[in-house]
Design a protein that fits this description.
The chain is α/β, with parallel strands linked by helices and about 300 residues long. Helices cover about 45% and strands about 20% of the residues. It contains eleven helices and nine strands. Keywords: Acyltransferase, Cell inner membrane, Cell membrane, Membrane, Transferase, Transmembrane, Transmembrane helix.
Length: about 300
């Protein structure tokens, strides 16, 4: 009860912070950068190891530049995520823009073929803004797949935020059941594909950022089971607080793809995005907790 009470107080203060204008939030971010990076050194060892293993061809100085840029962006991402608690539709549409005038047409064209869509993204750029934007682009069923937080109060808070513009949030373990239940309806489902699977459930390793990486096969299994089109959600940061998104079609006919083909495609697209501008990926995540047993 004490933890729940303290959590509710924390939720109240987070909501108050979310009401602040962006320029104040980014001032807070600048201070937070000094605290997290300069003073505490939050997961600095994890970030350095991840960067060293991912970019062995870069010099130490080049990796240090990426490291500093990453921590600056991480602090921006923290305050932007808090902002989602009270952000308006208009503000999301102003800050998460389609890459071209034809970007959203792909979604409409796939729906016109009677197919549902699996939108695959990574922890790159502001995926929370992107999920809110996707929930506004169509009136069809919109689903955001999430990994539940240990703290139920905060879990409910962020799920309420993610669903404010019409999307339904569904836990990762329940998504197949949900999509089978609505298989006769067209739906747009957004998933983050670069989380680390539980070691006991790992079925596939692929090469990602220069190292063997355990990958969820959920996207591929869902696509083949439901015959859904798969698109990669490519997010770019164009300036502080402003992003573009684009949908790259991976397959419209998943049942005719080879085993692991869909998985390798979305992993390759994410790696390409990260290599182009690396600081916007979640480098402080312990992504490589374990290796193949025969490695």
């Amino acid at each position: 009860m004490i933890i729940k009470g303290l959590s509710r107080i924390g939720v109240f203060f987070l909501y108050l912070i979310s009401l602040l204008p962006f320029w104040i939030l980014y001032t807070i971010s600048d201070v937070l950068y000094v605290i997290l990076y300069r003073i505490i050194g939050y997961r600095r060892g994890v970030v350095r190891e991840n960067l060293a293993n991912s970019f062995p061809e870069k010099t130490t100085i080049e990796r240090q530049i990426i490291e500093k840029k990453y921590y600056r962006y991480l602090c921006d991402l923290i305050v932007e995520t808090i902002k989602t608690l009270s952000i308006s539709r208009k503000e999301v549409m102003r800050r998460m823009l389609p890459a071209t005038i034809h970007t959203n047409q792909l979604v409409a064209d796939i729906f016109a073929q009677g197919k549902s869509i699996l939108g695959v993204a990574g922890h790159y750029g502001n995926w929370e803004f992107a999920a809110l934007s996707c929930s506004m682009m169509t009136e069809e069923e919109r689903i955001v797949v999430y990994k539940p937080l240990a703290n139920q109060v905060f879990d409910q808070l962020f799920n309420k935020s993610r669903s404010k513009f019409g999307a339904e949030t569904v836990a990762m373990k329940d998504i197949l059941r949900k999509l089978v239940r609505i298989k006769d309806k067209r739906s747009f489902t957004v998933l983050l594909s670069d989380q680390t699977p539980v070691q006991e459930s790992v079925q596939y390793f692929t090469n990602f950022l220069n190292q063997p990486t355990a990958i969820f096969l959920g996207v591929e299994k869902l696509a083949k089971t439901l015959n859904s089109a798969v698109v990669f959600c490519d997010i770019k940061c164009i300036e502080r607080g402003y992003y573009t998104y684009n949908f790259i079609p991976l397959t419209l006919d998943p049942k005719n793809t080879a085993e692991y083909e869909i998985t390798n495609m979305h992993v390759a697209h994410l790696e390409k995005t990260i290599r182009e501008i690396p600081q916007y990926w979640l480098w402080s995540h312990k992504r490589w907790k374990f290796k193949p047993r025969n490695a």
